[in-house]
Design a protein that fits this description.
Layout lengths: L4 H34 L4 E3 L17 E2 L5 E5 L5 E10 L2 E5 L6 E3 L8 E4 L5 H5 L2 E11 L5 E12 L7 E11 L1
Antiparallel strand pairs: 1-3, 2-10, 3-7, 4-5, 4-6, 4-8, 8-9, 9-10
Amino acid sequence: MEMSIEVKMSMLLMIFQSIILAGQLWLAYYVYKSNKSEAKGYFMPLNDNLGIPQELKKIASYRYDLTKAIMFQNRGNDMLILLNNVIMVNNRIVESGTMPLNTLFTNDDSIFSRYGIVIPISHKDLESNKIDVKLEIKMKNSKNYIYKQIFYIEFSKLKDNDGQWEISKCNIEFKK
């Protein structure tokens, strides 16, 4: 039994439409995946925790008292939810997952965009001239994309100011 030309053309048209539909589905999935990871919140350290007057901030930026909380602010283009944190001081894990987890941080300039961390530093470490801190923060954005932000911070003790430290090196890395 031979098929008519109309049936053959209809089958060919259906196959062609199926190929186009599969391509559209793949493209929609690709756009969804790229949009999901595009909007990210990320933390940046605030200039100091010493209460330095505004007119001196340019001279004395990134100076800290390491016995007090260091504030970080969400500067990204999306809110973020904190899932886990790990703090290492001089290659020793000193704290892991103790922050209130699943905390939402907005990306506006308000108190809801700030994350304060007290780094548990020993007296022995405070007597040295340099302290290396690694802060690993696992978070997710509003579209449930999970990623990590890792800070590698080197604090150097200021010679003229007792108890004050400044950031001498700071590298930030993002991982999926």
